[in-house]
Amino acid sequence: MALPEFIEIVPLDKPVKAEITVPGSKSITNRALILAALADGEVTLTGALWSEDTQIMVECLQKLGFEIRVENDPEEFCNRTITVKGLGGKIPNSGTAEKPLELFVGNAGTAARFLAAFVCLGNGVYRLSGVPRMHERPQAALFKALRELGYCVESGNDKLPAKIWGDAERGVRSAECEVSIEESSQFASALLLCAKVGGWKINVVGENAEESPYVAMTLKLIETFPFKGGKFQIEPDASSGSYFWGAAWLIERSESSRAFKLAKNKLGRELKSGEILRAGPFEKSEITVAEWPNSHWQIDDDFTVFIRAGGMSHTSEISRIHDLGDSIMTAIVVAPFTEQQVRFVDLGRLRVQETERVVALRTELTKCGARVIEEGDTLTVYPSELHGAEIETYNDHRMAMCFAVLGLRVPGIKIRNPACAKKTFPNFFQKLADAPPRGLGATILDAKTGRKLSHEELFAD
């Protein structure tokens, strides 16, 4: 049974005590799959995310000739144990200039960028293509670097689709290139993952190059990876966990607001100047994310810094470069419930991802009654009274999940194309609806009929 095209989230009406598990990190899983294929021996990845983006990577590696075994994970439905037989840098399959080996990368930026560098280690011709949005996303800095290294990359506009000539017969190279991460740090990560086998020296330049959290993640992964074979544990995805920390923060504020309203009604009059109203004891929700990562490999590990202990209410500026990664979208969507305006800065990369996220966030929050000002690559969100609205997701998984969280507090939030969550979190809506402690116990309706959806109908397939 498929997830309907149009759903409504019903706000929670009672306290929740839950500990939510979230699937493995997409960023780590797709990096680890490339490193496992480059390893000299069999590598087993445990806790690996199994979603559209990682399935695309596995399918591409299998098409390139790698033996990969995928087994269920008893602890998390959307994780898998994935065993890859590494071939020490060799790529078995390839094509010719007349008939290149076709690799379809969907809208998976990691697959598109990582595989573009990876196939250069092969001995033949490869053609990478994706969905129309992937053909709009940046690739030029990566293609420029690959050409500096001596590889042939043929593309009409330095985007996908592109034809790439592998060069394995020339053996280990001694080459150097410069790569800019102004538009995406994935360009540098793609090259660094393959640098040892390719014999490449990579000079990373661009905004905050030395401190880029995703480049740092790649380097730490390379340092600790079992290249001679063995096991590697993928940690839970912090950006996916942000939705539940965000929900906890929203619900806590809602419960506190209700408690103070009751206390004021009980008082039966307006507060006098200087008088402090104290709410009586009330039952509070307790929502946490299980096995929250603390390795600091993921910049979104720090989301709890901004959410716990009312942090969002005392923060005036949050940066997409210095503070948070993808979870900044969660922070933006819940920001109307803060006590002061919050400026979200350095949002340029959000414009070239699954959709133009800066415009999408401003547009959909404004629909809900929020006051949001867009200036350059900054969004300023003001405290606002919100109301229900029909949310367009732009086929962007994070738009769907962020606004679903908003629906746990704001009545009338209806979401179009919620199944786009399959890109990174196929069972997200099931976790919203499952009974505590494994879920939040939310009611999710088919927005066209008003019918309550079952567990099976909430899987994004």
Structural notes for this entry:
There is one protein chain. The protein is an alpha/beta fold and 461 residues long. Helices cover 30% and strands 20% of the residues. It has twelve helices and 20 strands. The protein has helices at 26-38, 52-63, 109-118, 140-148, 186-198, 213-224, 238-267, 303-307, 328-334, 357-367, 397-407, 428-433, and strands at 6-10, 17-20, 42-49, 68-72, 79-85, 101-104, 125-129, 152-154, 162-165, 175-180, 200-205, 230-233, 286-289, 317-319, 342-345, 372-375, 378-381, 389-391, 413-416, 443-446. The protein has a four-stranded mixed beta sheet. A four-stranded mixed beta sheet has the order 4-5-3-12, with helices on one face. Helix 1 (26-38) runs parallel beside helix 2 (52-63) and helix 1 (26-38) packs across helix 6. The radius of gyration is 23 Å and the shape is globular. The model has no long low-confidence stretch (mean pLDDT 92).
Reconstruct the topology from this structure:
Blueprint: E1 6-10, E2 17-20, H1 26-38, E3 42-49, H2 52-63, E4 68-72, E5 79-85, E6 101-104, H3 109-118, E7 125-129, H4 140-148, E8 152-154, E9 162-165, E10 175-180, H5 186-198, E11 200-205, H6 213-224, E12 230-233, H7 238-267, E13 286-289, H8 303-307, E14 317-319, H9 328-334, E15 342-345, H10 357-367, E16 372-375, E17 378-381, E18 389-391, H11 397-407, E19 413-416, H12 428-433, E20 443-446
Parallel strand pairs: 2-13, 3-12, 6-7, 10-11, 14-15, 18-19
Antiparallel strand pairs: 1-19, 1-20, 3-5, 4-5, 7-9, 8-9, 15-17, 16-17
Helix pairs in contact: 1-2, 1-3, 1-5, 1-6, 2-3, 3-5, 5-6, 7-11, 9-11
